[in-house]
Specification:
Blueprint: E1 11-14, H1 18-27, E2 33-37, H2 40-44, H3 47-56, E3 61-65, H4 74-87, E4 91-96, H5 98-113, E5 122-123, E6 133-137, E7 149-154, E8 159-164, E9 172-175, H6 185-204, H7 210-232, H8 237-257, H9 261-273, H10 277-306, H11 316-333, H12 350-357, H13 372-381
Parallel strand pairs: 1-9, 2-3, 2-4, 4-6, 5-8, 6-9
Antiparallel strand pairs: 7-8
Helix pairs in contact: 4-5, 6-7, 6-8, 6-10, 7-8, 9-10, 9-12, 10-11, 12-13
Bound molecules: nicotinamide-adenine-dinucleotide and fe (ii) ion.
Fe (ii) ion binds near residues 142, 194, 197 and 198.
Length: about 375
Protein backbone atom coordinates (compact mmCIF):
# COMPACT_ATOMS: atom_id res chain seq x y z
CA UNK A 1 0.00 0.00 0.00
CA UNK A 2 1.39 3.40 -0.90
CA UNK A 3 0.66 6.75 0.72
CA UNK A 4 -2.17 8.81 -0.77
CA UNK A 5 -1.81 12.59 -0.75
CA UNK A 6 -4.98 14.65 -0.88
CA UNK A 7 -4.73 18.07 -2.54
CA UNK A 8 -7.35 20.82 -2.67
CA UNK A 9 -7.52 24.49 -1.70
CA UNK A 10 -7.53 25.04 2.06
CA UNK A 11 -10.80 27.03 1.89
CA UNK A 12 -13.69 26.27 -0.48
CA UNK A 13 -16.94 28.27 -0.51
CA UNK A 14 -19.95 26.72 -2.20
CA UNK A 15 -23.65 27.64 -2.46
CA UNK A 16 -25.83 30.71 -2.65
CA UNK A 17 -23.98 33.82 -1.40
CA UNK A 18 -20.51 32.24 -1.74
CA UNK A 19 -19.26 35.14 -3.86
CA UNK A 20 -20.10 37.76 -1.23
CA UNK A 21 -18.38 35.70 1.46
CA UNK A 22 -15.33 35.33 -0.75
CA UNK A 23 -14.97 39.09 -1.16
CA UNK A 24 -15.16 39.47 2.63
CA UNK A 25 -12.44 36.85 3.09
CA UNK A 26 -10.21 38.51 0.50
CA UNK A 27 -10.58 41.87 2.28
CA UNK A 28 -9.24 40.27 5.49
CA UNK A 29 -6.18 38.85 3.73
CA UNK A 30 -4.15 42.06 3.35
CA UNK A 31 -3.95 41.94 -0.47
CA UNK A 32 -3.78 45.32 -2.23
CA UNK A 33 -4.15 44.89 -5.97
CA UNK A 34 -5.79 42.00 -7.85
CA UNK A 35 -5.33 40.93 -11.43
CA UNK A 36 -8.78 39.66 -12.43
CA UNK A 37 -8.28 37.07 -15.20
CA UNK A 38 -11.45 36.55 -17.24
CA UNK A 39 -12.92 36.59 -20.78
CA UNK A 40 -15.02 39.11 -22.72
CA UNK A 41 -18.42 37.32 -22.44
CA UNK A 42 -18.12 37.46 -18.64
CA UNK A 43 -17.23 41.16 -18.80
CA UNK A 44 -20.32 41.67 -21.00
CA UNK A 45 -22.48 39.78 -18.48
CA UNK A 46 -21.35 42.38 -15.90
CA UNK A 47 -19.57 39.84 -13.65
CA UNK A 48 -16.10 41.43 -13.82
CA UNK A 49 -17.41 44.97 -13.17
CA UNK A 50 -19.44 43.81 -10.16
CA UNK A 51 -16.41 42.06 -8.69
CA UNK A 52 -14.21 45.11 -9.27
CA UNK A 53 -16.77 47.32 -7.48
CA UNK A 54 -17.14 44.92 -4.55
CA UNK A 55 -13.34 44.90 -4.12
CA UNK A 56 -13.09 48.71 -4.45
CA UNK A 57 -15.66 49.07 -1.66
CA UNK A 58 -13.13 47.23 0.54
CA UNK A 59 -10.13 49.32 -0.64
CA UNK A 60 -8.72 46.63 -2.92
CA UNK A 61 -7.68 47.72 -6.40
CA UNK A 62 -8.32 45.43 -9.36
CA UNK A 63 -7.06 45.42 -12.95
CA UNK A 64 -9.03 43.33 -15.44
CA UNK A 65 -7.32 41.09 -18.01
CA UNK A 66 -10.14 39.83 -20.26
CA UNK A 67 -7.96 38.38 -23.03
CA UNK A 68 -8.49 34.68 -22.20
CA UNK A 69 -9.74 32.54 -25.09
CA UNK A 70 -11.46 29.17 -24.68
CA UNK A 71 -8.57 26.65 -24.70
CA UNK A 72 -6.20 29.38 -23.36
CA UNK A 73 -2.88 29.82 -25.15
CA UNK A 74 0.72 30.60 -24.28
CA UNK A 75 0.08 34.05 -25.83
CA UNK A 76 -2.84 34.68 -23.43
CA UNK A 77 -0.54 33.82 -20.50
CA UNK A 78 2.18 36.22 -21.72
CA UNK A 79 -0.32 39.10 -22.19
CA UNK A 80 -1.84 38.58 -18.73
CA UNK A 81 1.59 38.36 -17.11
CA UNK A 82 2.65 41.65 -18.74
CA UNK A 83 -0.39 43.42 -17.27
CA UNK A 84 0.23 41.87 -13.83
CA UNK A 85 3.80 43.21 -13.84
CA UNK A 86 2.83 46.62 -15.18
CA UNK A 87 0.15 47.10 -12.48
CA UNK A 88 2.27 45.46 -9.74
CA UNK A 89 -0.54 43.13 -8.68
CA UNK A 90 0.11 41.13 -5.51
CA UNK A 91 -2.53 38.42 -6.13
CA UNK A 92 -4.68 36.96 -8.89
CA UNK A 93 -8.44 36.29 -9.13
CA UNK A 94 -9.73 34.02 -11.88
CA UNK A 95 -13.35 34.62 -12.85
CA UNK A 96 -14.94 32.16 -15.26
CA UNK A 97 -14.78 28.54 -16.33
CA UNK A 98 -11.73 26.35 -16.81
CA UNK A 99 -10.12 28.66 -19.36
CA UNK A 100 -9.72 31.74 -17.09
CA UNK A 101 -8.70 29.51 -14.13
CA UNK A 102 -5.99 27.76 -16.15
CA UNK A 103 -4.71 31.00 -17.67
CA UNK A 104 -4.64 32.62 -14.20
CA UNK A 105 -2.73 29.64 -12.77
CA UNK A 106 -0.13 29.90 -15.53
CA UNK A 107 0.24 33.67 -14.99
CA UNK A 108 0.56 33.26 -11.21
CA UNK A 109 3.06 30.37 -11.55
CA UNK A 110 5.36 32.18 -13.98
CA UNK A 111 5.05 35.42 -11.95
CA UNK A 112 6.77 33.79 -8.99
CA UNK A 113 8.97 31.15 -10.70
CA UNK A 114 10.10 33.07 -13.79
CA UNK A 115 10.79 31.60 -17.24
CA UNK A 116 8.06 30.53 -19.64
CA UNK A 117 4.94 28.45 -18.96
CA UNK A 118 6.30 25.78 -21.37
CA UNK A 119 9.07 25.11 -18.79
CA UNK A 120 6.48 23.67 -16.39
CA UNK A 121 4.81 21.06 -18.63
CA UNK A 122 4.71 17.72 -16.79
CA UNK A 123 4.46 16.94 -13.10
CA UNK A 124 5.66 19.26 -10.29
CA UNK A 125 8.28 21.13 -12.31
CA UNK A 126 8.12 24.44 -10.39
CA UNK A 127 10.27 25.30 -7.36
CA UNK A 128 8.13 27.95 -5.66
CA UNK A 129 4.50 28.63 -4.73
CA UNK A 130 2.63 30.70 -7.29
CA UNK A 131 1.23 34.15 -6.46
CA UNK A 132 -1.92 33.60 -4.34
CA UNK A 133 -4.89 32.72 -6.57
CA UNK A 134 -8.59 33.08 -5.68
CA UNK A 135 -10.69 31.11 -8.19
CA UNK A 136 -14.32 32.16 -8.75
CA UNK A 137 -16.04 29.54 -10.86
CA UNK A 138 -18.88 30.16 -13.35
CA UNK A 139 -19.26 26.74 -15.08
CA UNK A 140 -20.07 23.25 -13.72
CA UNK A 141 -17.59 22.20 -14.77
CA UNK A 142 -13.96 21.62 -15.02
CA UNK A 143 -13.36 22.05 -11.25
CA UNK A 144 -10.16 23.83 -12.23
CA UNK A 145 -10.95 26.22 -9.35
CA UNK A 146 -9.77 23.48 -6.95
CA UNK A 147 -7.23 21.50 -8.95
CA UNK A 148 -3.47 21.27 -9.42
CA UNK A 149 -3.97 20.90 -13.18
CA UNK A 150 -3.34 23.73 -15.63
CA UNK A 151 -3.99 23.13 -19.34
CA UNK A 152 -2.47 25.60 -21.79
CA UNK A 153 -2.30 25.33 -25.60
CA UNK A 154 1.10 26.02 -27.16
CA UNK A 155 0.10 28.40 -29.92
CA UNK A 156 3.01 27.30 -32.13
CA UNK A 157 2.49 23.51 -31.96
CA UNK A 158 -1.30 23.57 -31.21
CA UNK A 159 -0.68 21.00 -28.50
CA UNK A 160 -2.42 21.31 -25.15
CA UNK A 161 0.23 21.07 -22.45
CA UNK A 162 -0.77 19.42 -19.15
CA UNK A 163 0.95 21.24 -16.28
CA UNK A 164 0.25 19.12 -13.19
CA UNK A 165 1.78 20.98 -10.27
CA UNK A 166 0.76 21.23 -6.61
CA UNK A 167 1.83 24.89 -6.73
CA UNK A 168 -1.01 25.90 -9.07
CA UNK A 169 -3.65 24.98 -6.48
CA UNK A 170 -5.72 28.11 -5.67
CA UNK A 171 -5.83 29.33 -2.05
CA UNK A 172 -9.61 29.86 -2.13
CA UNK A 173 -12.26 28.36 -4.42
CA UNK A 174 -15.71 29.85 -4.93
CA UNK A 175 -18.74 28.07 -6.43
CA UNK A 176 -21.81 30.31 -6.36
CA UNK A 177 -24.63 28.76 -8.44
CA UNK A 178 -26.05 32.26 -8.96
CA UNK A 179 -23.10 32.86 -11.34
CA UNK A 180 -23.94 29.67 -13.28
CA UNK A 181 -27.57 30.34 -14.14
CA UNK A 182 -26.71 32.30 -17.30
CA UNK A 183 -24.89 29.36 -18.88
CA UNK A 184 -26.66 28.49 -22.14
CA UNK A 185 -27.92 24.91 -22.55
CA UNK A 186 -25.03 23.79 -24.78
CA UNK A 187 -22.40 25.05 -22.30
CA UNK A 188 -24.29 23.46 -19.38
CA UNK A 189 -24.31 20.15 -21.27
CA UNK A 190 -20.66 20.24 -22.32
CA UNK A 191 -19.31 21.26 -18.91
CA UNK A 192 -21.59 18.76 -17.12
CA UNK A 193 -20.30 15.93 -19.34
CA UNK A 194 -16.73 17.08 -18.56
CA UNK A 195 -17.53 16.68 -14.85
CA UNK A 196 -18.97 13.20 -15.52
CA UNK A 197 -15.78 12.30 -17.40
CA UNK A 198 -13.65 13.46 -14.44
CA UNK A 199 -15.63 11.26 -12.06
CA UNK A 200 -15.61 8.16 -14.30
CA UNK A 201 -11.91 8.46 -15.19
CA UNK A 202 -10.99 8.98 -11.51
CA UNK A 203 -13.10 5.96 -10.51
CA UNK A 204 -11.36 3.59 -12.94
CA UNK A 205 -7.92 5.22 -12.44
CA UNK A 206 -5.03 3.09 -11.20
CA UNK A 207 -4.48 5.76 -8.50
CA UNK A 208 -8.04 5.67 -7.08
CA UNK A 209 -8.42 5.35 -3.30
CA UNK A 210 -11.41 5.23 -0.94
CA UNK A 211 -11.61 9.04 -0.67
CA UNK A 212 -11.57 9.64 -4.43
CA UNK A 213 -14.03 6.73 -4.92
CA UNK A 214 -16.54 8.31 -2.53
CA UNK A 215 -16.25 11.68 -4.29
CA UNK A 216 -16.54 10.13 -7.76
CA UNK A 217 -19.58 7.95 -7.03
CA UNK A 218 -21.53 10.81 -5.40
CA UNK A 219 -20.64 13.10 -8.32
CA UNK A 220 -21.88 10.51 -10.85
CA UNK A 221 -25.22 10.11 -9.06
CA UNK A 222 -25.73 13.89 -8.76
CA UNK A 223 -24.91 14.38 -12.45
CA UNK A 224 -27.28 11.60 -13.56
CA UNK A 225 -30.07 13.21 -11.53
CA UNK A 226 -29.44 16.88 -12.30
CA UNK A 227 -27.61 17.51 -15.58
CA UNK A 228 -30.57 17.01 -17.93
CA UNK A 229 -32.71 19.16 -15.62
CA UNK A 230 -30.18 22.03 -15.69
CA UNK A 231 -29.91 21.75 -19.49
CA UNK A 232 -33.71 21.77 -19.95
CA UNK A 233 -34.23 24.70 -17.57
CA UNK A 234 -31.23 26.88 -16.70
CA UNK A 235 -33.26 28.68 -14.03
CA UNK A 236 -33.77 25.44 -12.05
CA UNK A 237 -31.60 26.54 -9.13
CA UNK A 238 -31.86 23.22 -7.31
CA UNK A 239 -30.34 21.46 -10.33
CA UNK A 240 -27.70 24.24 -10.70
CA UNK A 241 -26.79 23.91 -7.01
CA UNK A 242 -26.51 20.12 -7.26
CA UNK A 243 -24.37 20.42 -10.40
CA UNK A 244 -22.05 22.86 -8.55
CA UNK A 245 -21.56 20.19 -5.85
CA UNK A 246 -21.24 17.40 -8.41
CA UNK A 247 -18.49 19.09 -10.39
CA UNK A 248 -16.60 19.99 -7.19
CA UNK A 249 -16.81 16.35 -6.01
CA UNK A 250 -15.63 15.13 -9.42
CA UNK A 251 -12.75 17.60 -9.14
CA UNK A 252 -11.79 16.30 -5.69
CA UNK A 253 -11.72 12.81 -7.21
CA UNK A 254 -9.58 13.49 -10.28
CA UNK A 255 -7.30 16.02 -8.57
CA UNK A 256 -6.06 13.12 -6.46
CA UNK A 257 -6.69 9.98 -8.56
CA UNK A 258 -5.85 11.75 -11.85
CA UNK A 259 -7.56 10.99 -15.18
CA UNK A 260 -7.16 8.69 -18.18
CA UNK A 261 -7.19 8.41 -21.95
CA UNK A 262 -10.45 10.34 -22.47
CA UNK A 263 -8.63 13.47 -21.34
CA UNK A 264 -5.33 12.52 -22.97
CA UNK A 265 -7.16 12.22 -26.33
CA UNK A 266 -9.61 15.12 -25.81
CA UNK A 267 -6.69 17.49 -25.15
CA UNK A 268 -5.38 16.75 -28.65
CA UNK A 269 -8.74 17.51 -30.28
CA UNK A 270 -9.07 20.74 -28.26
CA UNK A 271 -5.57 21.92 -29.16
CA UNK A 272 -5.68 20.92 -32.85
CA UNK A 273 -9.18 22.07 -33.80
CA UNK A 274 -10.01 24.49 -30.93
CA UNK A 275 -13.07 22.42 -29.95
CA UNK A 276 -14.95 22.71 -26.60
CA UNK A 277 -13.26 20.49 -24.02
CA UNK A 278 -16.47 19.03 -22.55
CA UNK A 279 -17.85 18.06 -25.97
CA UNK A 280 -14.60 16.23 -26.90
CA UNK A 281 -14.74 14.31 -23.61
CA UNK A 282 -18.42 13.47 -23.98
CA UNK A 283 -17.89 12.00 -27.46
CA UNK A 284 -14.82 9.95 -26.41
CA UNK A 285 -15.98 8.78 -22.97
CA UNK A 286 -18.05 5.72 -24.02
CA UNK A 287 -15.42 4.55 -26.52
CA UNK A 288 -12.49 4.78 -24.10
CA UNK A 289 -14.50 2.99 -21.40
CA UNK A 290 -15.43 0.22 -23.88
CA UNK A 291 -11.67 -0.23 -24.39
CA UNK A 292 -11.05 -0.04 -20.61
CA UNK A 293 -13.71 -2.62 -19.78
CA UNK A 294 -11.19 -5.42 -20.45
CA UNK A 295 -9.50 -4.37 -17.16
CA UNK A 296 -12.11 -2.27 -15.36
CA UNK A 297 -15.46 -4.00 -15.97
CA UNK A 298 -16.22 -4.40 -12.26
CA UNK A 299 -15.60 -0.71 -11.62
CA UNK A 300 -17.67 0.33 -14.64
CA UNK A 301 -20.53 -1.86 -13.38
CA UNK A 302 -20.38 0.14 -10.12
CA UNK A 303 -20.53 3.35 -12.17
CA UNK A 304 -23.64 1.95 -13.89
CA UNK A 305 -25.30 1.50 -10.49
CA UNK A 306 -24.37 5.10 -9.53
CA UNK A 307 -25.99 6.23 -12.78
CA UNK A 308 -29.23 4.57 -11.60
CA UNK A 309 -28.96 1.42 -13.74
CA UNK A 310 -30.16 -1.98 -12.48
CA UNK A 311 -27.07 -4.24 -12.37
CA UNK A 312 -28.21 -6.93 -9.96
CA UNK A 313 -27.60 -10.41 -11.42
CA UNK A 314 -25.50 -9.13 -14.34
CA UNK A 315 -21.92 -10.18 -15.06
CA UNK A 316 -19.26 -7.49 -14.65
CA UNK A 317 -19.02 -7.11 -18.43
CA UNK A 318 -22.79 -6.78 -18.76
CA UNK A 319 -22.72 -4.12 -16.02
CA UNK A 320 -19.95 -2.28 -17.86
CA UNK A 321 -21.97 -2.42 -21.09
CA UNK A 322 -24.94 -0.95 -19.24
CA UNK A 323 -22.72 1.87 -17.92
CA UNK A 324 -21.54 2.72 -21.44
CA UNK A 325 -25.10 2.67 -22.80
CA UNK A 326 -26.29 4.95 -19.96
CA UNK A 327 -23.49 7.44 -20.68
CA UNK A 328 -24.40 7.44 -24.39
CA UNK A 329 -28.08 7.99 -23.54
CA UNK A 330 -27.31 10.94 -21.24
CA UNK A 331 -25.00 12.51 -23.85
CA UNK A 332 -27.75 12.23 -26.49
CA UNK A 333 -30.38 13.62 -24.13
CA UNK A 334 -28.34 16.77 -23.42
CA UNK A 335 -27.59 17.33 -27.12
CA UNK A 336 -23.95 16.19 -27.49
CA UNK A 337 -23.03 15.49 -31.16
CA UNK A 338 -22.93 11.78 -32.03
CA UNK A 339 -19.30 11.58 -33.18
CA UNK A 340 -16.07 13.29 -34.18
CA UNK A 341 -17.22 13.59 -37.81
CA UNK A 342 -19.87 16.11 -36.69
CA UNK A 343 -17.05 18.12 -35.04
CA UNK A 344 -15.16 18.29 -38.37
CA UNK A 345 -12.26 16.22 -37.05
CA UNK A 346 -10.20 14.75 -39.92
CA UNK A 347 -9.50 11.00 -40.07
CA UNK A 348 -6.09 11.63 -41.64
CA UNK A 349 -4.99 13.38 -38.40
CA UNK A 350 -5.68 10.34 -36.17
CA UNK A 351 -2.11 8.97 -36.29
CA UNK A 352 -0.58 12.27 -35.16
CA UNK A 353 -3.32 12.93 -32.58
CA UNK A 354 -2.72 9.44 -31.14
CA UNK A 355 1.06 10.00 -30.96
CA UNK A 356 0.53 13.22 -29.01
CA UNK A 357 -2.15 11.68 -26.75
CA UNK A 358 0.38 9.06 -25.67
CA UNK A 359 2.65 11.85 -24.34
CA UNK A 360 -0.11 13.48 -22.23
CA UNK A 361 0.44 13.01 -18.47
CA UNK A 362 -3.31 12.38 -17.98
CA UNK A 363 -3.04 8.96 -19.65
CA UNK A 364 -0.60 7.53 -17.07
CA UNK A 365 -3.36 6.34 -14.71
CA UNK A 366 -5.66 4.83 -17.36
CA UNK A 367 -6.54 1.26 -16.30
CA UNK A 368 -5.07 -0.18 -19.53
CA UNK A 369 -2.08 1.33 -21.35
CA UNK A 370 -3.08 1.41 -25.04
CA UNK A 371 -0.75 1.01 -28.00
CA UNK A 372 -0.62 3.67 -30.72
CA UNK A 373 -2.87 1.47 -32.87
CA UNK A 374 -5.35 1.12 -29.97
CA UNK A 375 -5.63 4.92 -29.66
CA UNK A 376 -6.14 5.29 -33.42
CA UNK A 377 -8.85 2.59 -33.21
CA UNK A 378 -10.63 4.45 -30.40
CA UNK A 379 -10.57 7.68 -32.48
CA UNK A 380 -12.02 5.64 -35.41
CA UNK A 381 -14.75 4.14 -33.23
CA UNK A 382 -15.69 7.64 -32.03
CA UNK A 383 -15.88 8.99 -35.59
N1 LIG B 1 -7.33 22.64 -14.89
C1 LIG B 1 -8.23 21.68 -14.81
O1 LIG B 1 -8.32 21.01 -13.80
C2 LIG B 1 -9.13 21.45 -15.98
C3 LIG B 1 -10.03 20.37 -15.98
C4 LIG B 1 -10.85 20.21 -17.10
C5 LIG B 1 -10.79 21.11 -18.14
N2 LIG B 1 -9.90 22.14 -18.12
C6 LIG B 1 -9.81 23.13 -19.20
O2 LIG B 1 -10.86 24.08 -19.04
C7 LIG B 1 -11.18 24.63 -20.33
C8 LIG B 1 -12.68 24.58 -20.54
O3 LIG B 1 -13.35 25.31 -19.53
P1 LIG B 1 -14.95 25.43 -19.49
O4 LIG B 1 -15.52 24.22 -20.11
O5 LIG B 1 -15.32 25.77 -18.10
O6 LIG B 1 -15.27 26.62 -20.48
P2 LIG B 1 -14.51 28.01 -20.78
O7 LIG B 1 -13.92 28.57 -19.54
O8 LIG B 1 -13.62 27.81 -21.95
O9 LIG B 1 -15.75 28.92 -21.21
C9 LIG B 1 -16.44 28.65 -22.42
C10 LIG B 1 -17.37 29.83 -22.74
O10 LIG B 1 -18.40 29.91 -21.78
C11 LIG B 1 -18.55 31.24 -21.31
N3 LIG B 1 -19.07 31.21 -19.93
C12 LIG B 1 -18.41 30.80 -18.83
N4 LIG B 1 -19.23 30.88 -17.75
C13 LIG B 1 -20.42 31.37 -18.19
C14 LIG B 1 -21.65 31.68 -17.54
N5 LIG B 1 -21.83 31.48 -16.26
N6 LIG B 1 -22.65 32.17 -18.31
C15 LIG B 1 -22.50 32.34 -19.64
N7 LIG B 1 -21.34 32.06 -20.31
C16 LIG B 1 -20.32 31.58 -19.59
C17 LIG B 1 -17.16 31.82 -21.42
O11 LIG B 1 -17.22 33.22 -21.49
C18 LIG B 1 -16.66 31.19 -22.72
O12 LIG B 1 -17.08 31.94 -23.81
C19 LIG B 1 -10.42 23.82 -21.36
O13 LIG B 1 -9.30 24.55 -21.81
C20 LIG B 1 -9.99 22.58 -20.58
O14 LIG B 1 -8.81 21.99 -21.07
C21 LIG B 1 -9.10 22.32 -17.05
FE1 LIG C 1 -11.86 17.95 -18.12
Amino acid sequence: MSTATFFMPSVNLIGDGALEQAVNQVSESGFRHALIVTDTPLVELGYAGQLQQALAARDIQASVFDGVQANPTTGNVEAGLALLKQRQCDFVISLGGGSPHDCAKAIALVASNGGDIRDYEGVDKSAKAQLPLVAINTTAGTASEITRFCIITDEHTHIKMAIVDKHVTPVLSVNDPGLMKNMPASLTAATGMDALTHAVEAYVSTAANPITDACAIKAITLISQNLARAVANGADMEARNNMAYAQLLAGMAFNNASLGYVHAMAHQLGGFYDLPHGVCNAVLLPHVQRFNSRAAAARLAEVAAALGEEVQGLTEQQGADRCIAAIERLAREVGIPAGLRALKVKEEDFAELARNAMKDACGLTNPVQPSHEDVVEIFRAAY
